[in-house]
Amino acid sequence: MNRNRVLLGSILLIVLSLALWSNRAGTGSHSVQPIVDSDSNLAAGKRVYEGIILRAALIGGGTYEPLYESIAKFERDTGAKVEIAFKGNNYELDKKINQDVVKHSINYDVISTHSNLFLQYADDLEPLNSWFTDDELQDFSPSILYAGKIDGDQLMIPRLADISVYFYRTDLFHDEANKSKFKAIYKYDLAPPETLDQLKDIAVFFSTIEYGLSGIQFAGKEEAITGRFMELTQAFGGDFFDENKKVILNEIGGLKAAQYLRDLYSVGAMPKDMLNYLWDEEEYNFASGKVAMYSEWPGWYSTLDDPTSSTVAGEFDVFRAPAGPSGVHPGWGGAHGFAIMKSSNHKQAAAALVKFLTSEENLTSESKLGFAPVRLSVWEKVLNDAKTGDPRKQNFYKVLNTALTEDFRTPPPIKQWIPLSDILYPYLQRIIVGDISPKQGLDAAAKEITRMMAEPE
């Protein structure tokens, strides 16, 4: 049977299962009463939002940018004008929104947000149930839609799903001399690792003076390192909270994960300045040929494969995050999307903009950049296109699908996720560079997080 047909079937089966699960969990949508007249007028070519100015605060940089070029079409079709009030990376944007919420100075209608972040300011977001029909939402993956809900209110419409896969240099892995040297040292073949122990071996191997490379890298500050630590903690059999919401990240799984990061850093397998990295710096290092392998979001694929921006274009591939001793594959997942501020005076036009940005046409274009689709119709197109495409791209979508369907785990659904991260990541940095032991650092972090979680919201 055609491999892609099997893959598509597995996606649809999983999505249907998730839909049934969501219904059993009481997550069905409220009845909706959309503004039908405006939708009909738009379909008839009438510029129904003539004179309206919409302001947006958006995530920017890298492959997030091409979508915004299409806004000019929205403006031509609707008559609305879209002003970008703020643009920054995920963390800059989140800080901006939170500051504006606290100061009651929100002056924008539409925002980019993330399933890990929107809980903090959920009370300031417009429920979208009245602005989107069931028909308009049925093409979206139920599980990804669910990530944007609170108590049945749809607060975020997804743009893309996010889960990391590992990128690696095929020119290094396929080199016969490298393969021979590696096997002589480690007594097994050099190949994409299947376990975290193998990942460490390969990272150390390529970080020797002979290669002049960093074997592996991680973004080392803010939520970027918190999320990586969380998924490694789970791979080592632990978690951040137990079923009673007690903080347990300082127990055995977290201790092993912290030691793992510390070991890689102490032997020089990771860049010395990684504690200053976010996603752009990571991508630049790999694209510049300075790193043998690293964990990265799928949206960077097209940039890395562009010879005008990458020295490793055509010379890399991807593999699934290697399993930890618990058998769990690291899988820090989430979804980017768009939301509407409750304070907006133009909610109908704002909803039209969100519908436009998350349309099948726009999300199909984004899928070609490597973004993981959130619409079933887009996944089907992606798989059909991959049938006769580059074998590397076929493998990319196969690995991505496996990660999304088997390894996808979001951070705990708490409003304090970012405050938790702000407490934890400085301790993680100190552990990684050897200033304090994993136990000292995690015990101190757990104590502060426990106290923070007990404070009234």
From TrEMBL:
<dbReference type="Pfam" id="PF01547">
    <property type="entry name" value="SBP_bac_1"/>
</dbReference>
<dbReference type="InterPro" id="IPR006059">
    <property type="entry name" value="SBP"/>
</dbReference>
<protein>
    <submittedName>
        <fullName>Sugar ABC transporter substrate-binding protein</fullName>
    </submittedName>
</protein>
<dbReference type="InterPro" id="IPR050490">
    <property type="entry name" value="Bact_solute-bd_prot1"/>
</dbReference>
